[in-house]
Structure formats: C-alpha cells, structure tokens
Amino acid sequence: MTEKLAAIRKELKKKLKKDRYEHTTGVMYTAASLAMCYGEDIEKALTAGLLHDCGKFAPPGEQIKLCEKYGIELTSSELDMPALIHAKLGACLAEHEYGITDRETLDAITYHTTGRPGMTMLEKIIYIADYIEPNRREIPGLAEIRGIVFQDIDRAVHLSAEQTVQYLSSSGKTVDPMTVNTCEFYKNRR
Ligand SMILES: [Fe+2]
Ligand SMILES: [Fe+2]
Questions:
Q1: Residues with Cβ within 5 Å of ion ligand 2?
Q2: What is the pTM of this model?
Q3: How far apart are the first and last CA of the chain?
Q4: Which CATH number describes the domain made up of 3-138?
Q5: What is residue 84's DSSP assignment?
Q6: What is the pLDDT of residue 190?
C-alpha cells in the first residue's frame, strides 16, 4: 500500500464508525483479491475499496447539503432513498478531499451501490466486493455468490443485483431503476 493510501486509511479510521471502517477494510482487501484474480490494477482496487463508503461519514441530511455544496445533482430516486446518495458524494469527496484523480477509480465509487450496465472490471470488482466482503451478515444466496465470484464475476454481479431487487421489492422499498438495469444487463450476459 502506498503512503498516500495509508494516510487516507488513517483518516477514514477516525472519520467512520467502527463497523463502517471494518466493512471498508473488508471491501478493500476483497477488491484487491479480485483484482489479482482478474488481472486488474491492485492499487486502484485498494483505493476504490478504501474510499467507496467515504461519503457515509456524514448522516443523510448532511450528505444532501454536501451534494448542494459540490453541485452534485440528485435524481428523484436518490432523494427517495438517501442510502444511495453516498456513492456519488463519495466519488466527489475522493476527488476533491482525498486527491484521487483516476477517473476509473472514481467511477467505481460512483456505481458501487446500483451498478450499471456495461461496468468496467474495476467497477464490477468494487460492486461485488461491497456485497461479499467477509464482515457481511450471512443472507440467503451470499454463499453461492462467494463461491462463484472468482470464476464468473458477471454471474456474481447478476445474482447480487437480483437479490437486491428482490429484497427491496419484498420489503416495500423503492428500487433504483439503475439497479434493475444492472440486473437485466448481467442476466443476459450469462
Ligand atoms: Fe456503499
Ligand atoms: Fe459499502
């Protein structure tokens, strides 16, 4: 890990709640392992994994204010589901507060919650690492995804998007259209 990354890690340890920081570390190393498997840049995977939830240091109301400050436009479903906001905000903070300039790394942070059709390998790695990292609570289907992700990342992305859509629908929550699009796109790639 570079000195720059170690410094960011130290700062995030102070800013994030303990559980969120543990999750962050889990995502960072899971992403690095997937990068090794799929020939992706390990440093970028560590960086995006480390910063993917940096927007969560603030409660939702404050996140919305920060979006206004940085001129980040929010969609109606993001305003409906404030849990989505930290992704865009996180990419913005990664760039402006933590000095990350690599567009691919920033995009991996932006799309880590909803995914998107046609993700880059780095985007898929962060999306799925967020879902499977070792500290995640066991939910139905998680073991299957963990079992296949190092052989077939597209299938793992499809299954996790499908489970997210099912979980949100069955609990009466709004499903972001982008999550549905991600699910459909990766279903058809199988
Ligand atoms: Fe997140
Ligand atoms: Fe996360």
A1: 53, 130
A2: 0.97
A3: 35
A4: 1.10.3210.10
A5: G
A6: 61
